[in-house]
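Hi there,

I know you've been waiting on this one. I reran it after we fixed the sequence typo, so this is the corrected version. Both the input and the resulting structure follow.
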Amino acid sequence: MGPPAAGRPDDVAAAEPELMAHGYTHLTSRLGDVVTKQYRGPEAAARCAREATVLAAVGGVLPVPPVIAAGPAWLQTGLAPGVHGQDLIAAGLAGPVLAACGRMLRRIHQLPVPPELSRGASSPGAVLVHGDYGPNNVLLDARASDVTAVLDWEWAHAGDPVEDLAWCEFILRLHHPGEVWALDAFYDLYRARPAWPDLHHAIVDRCRSMLELCQRWEPVGIGVASWTERLATVKTWTQ
């Protein structure tokens, strides 16, 4: 059974949900001020539960959407305010967007790891890793001065901060190659910049894991072809 119709009594004719932009893997729709995310692929239920756990843990501390309801593989949250980070980059605000991303990631990595995620952490220095961090998963005010919401926590875990730093760099290099200069603002506001070999290794490793996920999900699907190409591309990247 799928998620219930959001924001309306059962005796009211259903409004048509609006599919939201920037939903690459899952079905994300909006009905009024309620956003419904339907997870797909391997371990969908586990990823849904993880995101609900993190949102409950960091809500009130970080700007994240409030959880309304959750099911086996769907999550309903309140609609978060703001403009998508990649839209603002396209509008010429790459520098402010990346600066705000760096400042917010520093806050995330300073938070305690929720107990549900810290079990089995391999390193005593592990931090709360978002797992898919970058302008693809943040909303900001219209001037890109502040992050108004951090979205999509399904890959969150206890880990090395370089994972999030590397993935933000990956998102910018892949989708906005003409704006790579803005990474200086990102690392300046984060207040640390790992060595390129460490960043590159983390990027390659994550791309490889995404390829493996797609191979388990749809072995002959478009995802496998896409991540095979991306993995080959990032292996050629140099600082």
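Quick highlight: The chain has three domains: 18-78, 83-194, 195-239.

Best,
R. S.
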